[in-house]
Amino acid sequence: MSDHELQALRVRIDSLDEKILELISQRARCAQEVGRIKMATLKEGEEAIFYRPEREAQVLKRIMELNKGPLDNEEMARLFREIMSTCLALEQPLKVAYLGPEGTFSQAAALKHFGQAVVSKPMAAIDEIFREVAAGAVSFGVVPVENSTEGAINHTLDSFLEHDLVICGEVELRIHHHLLVAENTKTEKISRIYSHAQSLAQCRKWLDAHYPNVERVAVSSNAEAAKRVKSEWNSAAIAGDMAAQLYGLSILADKIEDRPDNSTRFLIIGNQTVPATGDDKTSVIISMSNKPGALHELLIPFHASGIDLTRIETRPSRSGKWSYVFFIDFYGHKDDPLVRDALEKVAQESVGLKVLGSYPNAVL
């Protein structure tokens, strides 16, 4: 390519950048106008709803359908997510609670779902996230609910039994674990490895093969593990890219998770119900009598209506010894006629039915 051709391309890129800048500014002004109209049309006692999960999911899916490359659909959707996040902040910045401290996978999930423009607030425990949302101190919370390697996150399931909050969305995060060390770490003398218990379990085989005699210390989070390594010469941490960057650690071994498809699913909890988008999931809690065939009776209405169940988890009930509740996820929205009919039949057969929420299927 000649210098003349290269210069011509640079001029074209500059021209395109100017057009992109103007279009983003126009979009931002539209977002401001939306916020103004919402505030002007509020009735007395009403609270304005600025973030609409169903609208955002529809916009991102439409962008992915229209995309013709060369950027792939997910990359294009991520770009638009950030534009939407920044424009929404002009209406009202969202406050989102996540399982802290800074640098955890929960924070990464929050930023993936809401974009970088949110005000993210780290919490020390999952139950604290539920309490912050219930109290209205934050708009939404992000909580882990299941991992593809280790299964359900029981603290989250138990918190749904204690709090009346609505699931507003979900986000799936690909989990890459790295072995991290600090500048002062003597790598040949590592005697302990810190990480969250879930992460240690997800890297069990790798640790058995490479550090079989090293003590494994479970701590409250991967970010906490990274912080500890900063002040010790004989330890390492298992954590992700975000923690490595935040705490200035280097990667001694990358992607050490035992399963290459290791992912964690997070739920977005809030106080607002979400209208149907046409591609939704619903989560429910069902209490059944402790009798033979109880689970079979529970599943019949779903099967009869052709509803696809994606997850069933069992947890001890808080109401009595040796009684249990079922956490069930399935495709469809609670307002869909088939889903509504199935849930009515389940309610008749069960001791108790609680719809945790219907929400858009994860886009990214």
From TrEMBL:
Entry-linked Pfam families: ACT, CM_2, PDT
Pathway in which the depicted protein is active: Metabolic intermediate biosynthesis; prephenate biosynthesis; prephenate from chorismate: step 1/1; Amino-acid biosynthesis; L-phenylalanine biosynthesis; phenylpyruvate from prephenate: step 1/1
Location(s), subcellular: Cytoplasm
Molecular functions per Gene Ontology: chorismate mutase activity; prephenate dehydratase activity
GO cellular component, one term: cytoplasm
SUPFAM superfamilies noted in UniProt: ACT-like (SSF55021), Chorismate mutase II (SSF48600), Periplasmic binding protein-like II (SSF53850)
Domain Chorismate mutase: 1-95
Site note Essential for prephenate dehydratase activity, residues: 264
InterPro entries reported for this sequence: ACT-like_dom_sf, ACT_dom, Chor_mutase/pphenate_deHydtase, Chorismate_II_sf, CM_dom_sf, CM_II_prokaryot, G/b/e-P-prot_chorismate_mutase, Preph_deHydtase
Entry keywords, A to Z: Amino-acid biosynthesis, Aromatic amino acid biosynthesis, Cytoplasm, Isomerase, Lyase, Multifunctional enzyme, Phenylalanine biosynthesis
Protein EC: 4.2.1.51, 5.4.99.5
Domain Prephenate dehydratase: 95-271
Residue ranges of every copy of the ACT domain listed in the record: 283-360
SMART domains tied to this protein: CM_2
Top-rank taxon, per record: Bacteria
Example GO BP: L-phenylalanine biosynthetic process
PANTHER family: PREPHENATE DEHYDRATASE P PROTEIN, PREPHENATE DEHYDRATASE-RELATED
Designated name of the protein: Bifunctional chorismate mutase/prephenate dehydratase
Organism: Denitrificimonas caeni
